[in-house]
Amino acid sequence: MKYFIASDHAGFQMKKLLLEELLHCNLTAEDLGTWSEESTDYSDYAQSLSAKILSEKDSRGILLCGSGIGMSIAANRFKGIRAALVWNEELAKLSRLHNNSNVLVLPARFLSENQAKSVLHTWIDTAFEGGRHERRVQKIESDLPNS
Question: What global pTM score does this model have?
């Protein structure tokens, strides 16, 4: 599994911490930016990370911004991306078990460093449950009918 990680300026410091955590755990990870606390547009990073996830088999992503809301909205515009805005271990686990999330979105301004690490590990370590949830995920992935 390869992990891509990206943030805007508000998530920059926590992104650096989580990238170090991924590498410390001997996971393959690639930083897609931003590379400073200078103001940036979160949508640019959500788009580049989503494109990478869709083009590289066996990959997942981690996005960070201040609230996580903008990154979540921007990433979920891509068919095949299931970005989950998560702020605790239970939601991280459920996003993987029931929704097979492939992008973890963290609200950097609302989590401590320890909370963020714990959420990250829970999300990484939880497998998709499948079963009845597979049908539901497939419905998310299918084209919407014309209205």
Answer: 0.95
